[in-house]
Design brief:
Structural class: mainly alpha
Distance between the termini: 18 Å
Number of strands: 0
Number of helices: 3
Helix content: 55-70%
Order of helices and strands: HHH
């Protein structure tokens, strides 16, 4: 199994954990991407990103 197959399996598992239909899941993932993009600008300062949420984990990966 190569690294891309491993990442795909991790993403597939995380995607199932996100509530809603496919369109809703994609919407909240996009929202999480925007959130992370904003937070990463402040990583040199105190930044508390909660990776316990499956949507945030999916967006991070």
């Amino acid at each position: 199994m190569n690294c891309f197959q491993i990442i795909k399996s991790v993403l597939d598992e995380a995607y199932v954990q996100i509530p809603g239909d496919e369109a809703k899941k994609d919407e909240v993932i996009n929202d999480a991407l925007e959130y992370l993009r904003g937070e990463y600008c402040h990583l040199s300062q105190e930044c508390n990103i909660d990776y316990s949420d499956p949507t945030t984990r999916f967006a991070y990966i």
